[in-house]
Prior knowledge:
Blueprint: E1 13-19, E2 36-37, E3 40-41, H1 42-50, E4 57-62, H2 66-72, E5 79-83, H3 90-95, E6 107-112, H4 120-132, E7 137-143, E8 152-156, E9 159-164, H5 171-174, E10 178-187, H6 191-195, H7 213-218, E11 223-228
Parallel strand pairs: 1-4, 1-6, 4-5, 7-11
Antiparallel strand pairs: 2-3, 6-10, 7-10, 8-9
Amino acid sequence: xxxxxxxxxTTNTHIVVLAAGQGARMKSxxxxxxxxxxxxxxxxxxxxxxxxxxxxxxxxxxGHKADLVEDALADRASIQFVHQEPQLGTGxxxxxxxxxxxxATGTLLLLxxxxxxxxxxxxxxxxxxxxxxAAGLTVLTANVARPYGYGRIxxxxxxxxxxxxxxxxxDKQRKIREINSGIYAFELAxxxxxxxxxxxxxxxxxxxxxxxxxxxxxxNMPIETLTLEDADEIHGINSxxxx
Length: 243
């Protein structure tokens, strides 16, 4: 079992970046996160955004052409790599970091490796919102004019009660304009047990991370959201035309 290597930090924040996907819509042999924006690989922009947080540990989940991603980030000694094979969804990807985070406490910040515009201040605000509410889970959301392709935020009386993916949403749910950014803050204590409760009961046959909301509800842990004003900040790259 690999034990986390802690850095000189008092934040008690651990970060996981999901970068295992193939990115089929890129229509390229290169992993999506290695395509460049403003002269740098997409994932490097993400890693630069998290640097000011001074996390206790940083892990990158790799899978498709993992060797290329690891080689591209070889000069970043603080990063540890976790392998996801096969790729069975975001929930499954995060679960692969369990052994790496054995014994860790505090907050885990999770984000995808394909959001090059995310700002350090936004990630800091998410963590502060999470801690101020003593939440078990906090989700970064945004309201957009064209929500197609994104998970929709389901609320009751203003409170988050679930997240439904585009493919699994009803016609009514698809009209919702508040979307899931895919960026989360979790309290570590119940996280991995909750991930193991996920079921692949969806059209894709994958273990969706958003389904973890119900696990935190059963634990009666507060669930919070932070809604962005600038939705462009969380726009993920899905095709070469978006670079």
